Fold this protein.
Amino acid sequence: MSWRADVITLFPDLFPGPLGASVIGRGATEGLWSLTTTQLRDFATDRHRTVDDTPAGGGPGMVLKPDILALAIDAVSPADDPRPRILMSPRGTPLTQATVRELAAGPGAVLICGRFEGIDQRVIDARNLQEISIGDYVLAGGEVAAMVLIEAVVRLIPGVLGAADSHADESFENGLLEYPQYTRPQSFEGCDIPAVLTSGDHGKVEKWRQAESEALTRRRRPDLLK
Ligand code: SAH
């Protein structure tokens, strides 16, 4: 069974976008994962195809209506759907590589893209939506955030990237940032590749990389070491 993403959005034309390119796109062509988009507006029940309304209590912007969103969620994800239902939201739990790994090990995900001021709280509760944020900044909509999540997950699906073990020493996988990488030419603008990397001594290379990873993490992301 391949990994299945469903995305509920007001802008299905934005997909697959970057998810159609390179190894991620090829993974879909090869049936390793699949993406279905659902236009939220198709579930509107009035003549004007309304999906939003003014916030109760006042304030700027519009809020996505719970009844219409619930209809869309129920259509793509019935009560016995084993996949998590995720609402892209700046208020959510920050997306981490650990969450990405967990999602990749599961059957897929149902992703809901917000727009405007936000979403009626009652549908978040009633449909058990798990709020996930891609970072501490505010986007105009959840679509790019959903793409970020899907891309991070899909590259972990076996067969999508070339080498099976190419994830092991990547940033975050071992709680550290990745060590610096080099390739030919041997000399670039007067700078040589660190000698240890061309020494052929795998033990020394390993030690150097570990030390570089630790130093970089301590300098840039001391929070990861806690
Ligand atoms: N008023 C909201 C922001 C709405 S932004 C607030 O202050 O929390 C509109 C939509 O963009 C959101 O509903 C969400 O789906 C998406 N979005 C914005 N920033 C995001 C982020 N950092 N991570 C994930 N989704 C985000």
The two ends are 38 Å apart (CA to CA). The helical segments are 22-29, 66-76, 97-105, 121-126, 143-154, 202-220. The chain has two domains: 3-154, 169-226. Residues 169-226 form a domain with the Trp Operon Repressor; Chain A fold (CATH 1.10.1270.20).
